[in-house]
């Protein structure tokens, strides 16, 4: 299981995805921990068993045990937060914004890895889940920490490509049934 194996599964009509997958992962300037944590967290967020099975072993091999766990934690907590905060934002009654969330999210404050890396992964997952409030919040934290726009963009490029590959491969699997 590997990036090459995943690329070989992408149909010819989606050749751009194959090229982009190789580019956003294989030619990234991101530090290895940011890159592979982003790959793992977005693979989880894509909800595609195929994508996760193919990318997880390589991510695990490139991450410390703490970073591996933290990337999974980012995907988990953002799966909850993205639904909650996106819904709160979309409701026309803005009074919900004044109510206490009452949801545990302690991992954000103590992720077990560098806070910037965890924010990076949370941002990428939020891109897949489409939560504007979370995207803005995590992007601001990243920018205040000195992360350049180009690096932030790398996070959502990875998210976009992983999600597109997941959608394509899952559609092909469904059509083959």
UniProtKB/TrEMBL annotation:
Keywords: Antioxidant, Disulfide bond, Oxidoreductase, Peroxidase, Redox-active center
Disulfide bonds: 131-134
An individual GO BP term: cell redox homeostasis
The keyword Disulfide bond belongs to this UniProt entry's keyword annotation: yes
Enzyme kind, highest EC tier: oxidoreductase
EC number: 1.11.1.28
Xref: Pfam families: CMD
Gene3D superfamilies given in the database record: AhpD-like
Entry GO MF terms: disulfide oxidoreductase activity; hydroperoxide reductase activity; peroxiredoxin activity
Domain Carboxymuconolactone decarboxylase-like per the UniProt entry, residue ranges: 95-177
Catalyzed reaction equations: N(6)-[(R)-dihydrolipoyl]-L-lysyl-[lipoyl-carrier protein] + a hydroperoxide = N(6)-[(R)-lipoyl]-L-lysyl-[lipoyl-carrier protein] + an alcohol + H2O
Keyword DNA-binding attributed: no
Active site: 131, 134
Oligomer and partners: Homotrimer.
NCBIfam families tied to this protein: ahpD, ahpD_dom
Protein role: Antioxidant protein with alkyl hydroperoxidase activity. Required for the reduction of the AhpC active site cysteine residues and for the regeneration of the AhpC enzyme activity.
Stated family: Belongs to the AhpD family.
Protein name: Alkyl hydroperoxide reductase AhpD
């Amino acid at each position: 299981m590997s990036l090459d194996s995943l690329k070989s599964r992408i149909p010819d009509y989606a050749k751009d995805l194959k090229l982009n997958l190789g580019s956003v992962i294989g030619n990234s300037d991101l530090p290895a921990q940011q890159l592979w944590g982003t790959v793992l967290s977005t693979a989880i967020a894509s909800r595609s068993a195929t994508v996760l099975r193919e990318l997880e072993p390589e991510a695990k091999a490139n991450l410390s045990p703490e970073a591996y766990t933290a990337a999974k934690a980012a995907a988990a907590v953002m799966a909850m937060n993205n639904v909650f905060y996106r819904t709160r934002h979309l409701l026309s009654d803005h009074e919900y914004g004044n109510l206490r969330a009452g949801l545990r999210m302690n991992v954000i404050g103590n992720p077990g890895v560098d806070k910037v890396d965890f924010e990076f992964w949370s941002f990428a997952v939020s891109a897949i889940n489409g939560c504007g409030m979370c995207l803005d919040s995590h992007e601001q934290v990243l920018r205040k920490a000195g992360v350049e726009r180009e690096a932030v963009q790398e996070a959502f490029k990875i998210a976009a490509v992983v999600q597109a590959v997941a959608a394509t491969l899952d559609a092909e699997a469904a059509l083959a049934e």
